[in-house]
Amino acid sequence: MNQQVTDFISNVNQSWQANVCNQLRQIVHESIPGVEERIQYRKPHFLKNGKYAAVITIAKETVSFTIFNAAGLILPDGLFEGPSERKTIKIRDGQTIDYELLTKLLEQASSSL
């Protein structure tokens, strides 16, 4: 794991956002063998074979999680937004997150990277 990503998450102001970031980081590492992580554009990016697999973005009231290479994924209606090649879920405080679903989607999306 990259210390810069650890520091980024440690500096997140709202504890619920830091918890979500840690959980998302964990599922990325469980889902994508050999994943690399780095801070790019002031956000944690996760790469497989040098190609973007996922990114975490912090906003005032949300944690956004983007899955790249998403064109072939079957997604639940209304949960994700964005163009077909990358899909983003915006997570809010108190929202129930289906980490199992996110894990499966990450596995599928990154399998061809």
UniProtKB/TrEMBL annotation:
Pfam families in alphabetical order: DUF1801
Output the InterPro entries linked to this UniProt entry.
YdhG-like
Please report the stretch or stretches of sequence annotated as the YdhG-like domain: 19-109
Task: Report the protein name in the record.
Answer: DUF1801 domain-containing protein
User: Which organism is this entry from?
Assistant: Paenibacillus apii
Q: Lineage, please?
A: Bacteria, Bacillati, Bacillota, Bacilli, Bacillales
